[in-house]
Every structure is written in structure tokens, then in C-alpha cells.
Amino acid sequence: MSFLKAEWNNLAMINYEVNPQILEKFVPKGTEIDFFNGKCYVSFIGFLFENVRVLGMKIPFHSDFEEVNLRFYVRRFENGVWKRGAVFISEIVPKHAISFVANTFYNEHYQTLPMKHNLKANENSREFTYQWKVNNYWNTIHVETNKNPIAIEVDSEAEFITEHYFGYTKINENETFEYQVTHPRWQQLEVINNKSEIDFETVYGPEFAFIKELKPTSVFLAIGSKITIEDKRKI
How confident is the model at residue 227 (pLDDT cuts 50, 70, 90)? Predict the structure, then answer.
């Protein structure tokens, strides 16, 4: 039985190229930074975590919520193949119990903050808004997209961002948790306007303040799907 079953829906993905040296201290043992066309990426993602079941059980008042995370990409060579995964620098949710379970059992880096979202269908477009409150300021991910889904092209940057099927967590300098994430290949909605406003320094600390001055390499909306998260193993 999977540890967790849920849906990840309406994933607004804002992607930046960064100097890989900034991320070295976050890289779990046994993995290395995964590059796409020689570029190192971090992604800032807002989405809906819905229909959550832990070990088959639905937890009252904790089955549907927003999440915003900052992540980067790694790979691990095992049994003759490369396993591609993500490392989460920070994950924000509105439920204390979610943070407790993730931090306690998966050694993740969740924090609990006030959050809200809004989905809007216009005549010729759709709008997706995710917000979270820090120091009385509402940070905002807001993207407007075309209405019609399109494929995520093979060998594209969007494929690189979405097709990572493992999570890696740095326990300490010598130990790492690995867990598998499963989902079908996603479709996307083309973003035609990005009005996101994020105080990176306040939310993520001084070492990530520079992101505010960067232009995203890409912004897109992955439609999402049902997912599973399998039980962790220590490597």
C-alpha cells in the first residue's frame, strides 16, 4: 500500500536558472545536481493538494489544501540507471498536522502559514492564484493561461521540470531519505501573463533574496493528476 495517495492539481511552475554552488549544501548524500542543457534550475510551485489519503485513510479537515514549495533537481545512479528526483528547500501549507507528519516522518522542511487560492475561468483564459501570508504581507503566485491543454514536449524544459519521480531528503551529511512519486505524464496550459509577487528574502532567507531580481526561464501551468507517494527508505 502506498504511504499517501492524493491529487496534485493546477501546478503553477515558475522556474529560474541559478548558480549550482548556491545549492551544494542542500544536496543529499548519494545524489548530484541534475542539469538540463547545462543549466541548474530551482522551481517555485503553487498547487492544490487534494483528496489526500494516508495509508488509505482520509483525515478529516486535512484532505484538501494549498501548497507552495521551492525545489531543485538531483539524480542518483543506482543499478545501472539514473533516478531523477527533487529536493525541497521549503514547503508551505496551511495545516499544522500536515507539517508535523511531513517533518517528523520524512524529515522535510514544511512550515504552516495562512494560505488561500482562487481559480477563475474567463471567456478566453483561466487564472490561478495562490497566496500565503508572512509578516502581514500576502505573497502571491498569479498566472493567467490559455484555456486549451497542450502536450508537454519531449526533451523540453517543461518535461525536465515535471518528469522527476523521486524525492530526496538530506537527513544529515551521511544519510538520505528516498521516496518514489508516481503519476502519469502531465499536460500543460500555456501561461500568457505572470503577475506573481513574492518576497523571497522574507519567505526563504537572505541567501535566496537574489531570485527577486531574476527573470524566470519559463512559467507554465501543469494540469496535474492523481499521484502516489511511496514509503521512504534510507540510503
Answer: very high
Task: For residue 57, name the pLDDT band (cuts at 50, 70, 90).
Answer: low
Q: Which domains does the chain have, with CATH numbers?
A: 4-234 (2.40.400.10)
Higher pLDDT, 134 or 96: 134
Q: How far is CA 156 from CA 35, 64, 146, 160, 162, in A?
A: 13, 31, 19, 6, 10
Q: How far apart are CA 151 and CA 154, in angstroms?
A: 9
- Determine the Cα–Cα distance for residues 188 and 222; give it in Å rounded to an integer: 4
pLDDT in tens, 163-202: 999 999 998 999 999 999 999 999 999 999 999 999 999 9
Stretch 32-58: mean pLDDT, rounded?
A: 89
Q: Which residues contact 25 (CB under 8 A, 6 or more apart)?
A: none
SS (H, E, C) the chain: CCCEEEEEEEEEEEEEECCHHHHHHHCCCCCEECCECCECEEEEEEEEEEEEEECCEECCCCCCEEEEEEEEEEEEEECCEEEEEEEEEEEEECCHHHHHHHHHHCCCCEEECCEEEEEEECCCEEEEEEEEEECCEEEEEEEEEECCCEECCCCCHHHHHHCCCEEEEECCCCCEEEEEEECCCCEEEEEEEECCECCHHHHHCHHHHHHHHCCCCEEEEEEEEEEEECCCEEC
Strands 110-112 and 81-93: parallel
pLDDT at 32: 98
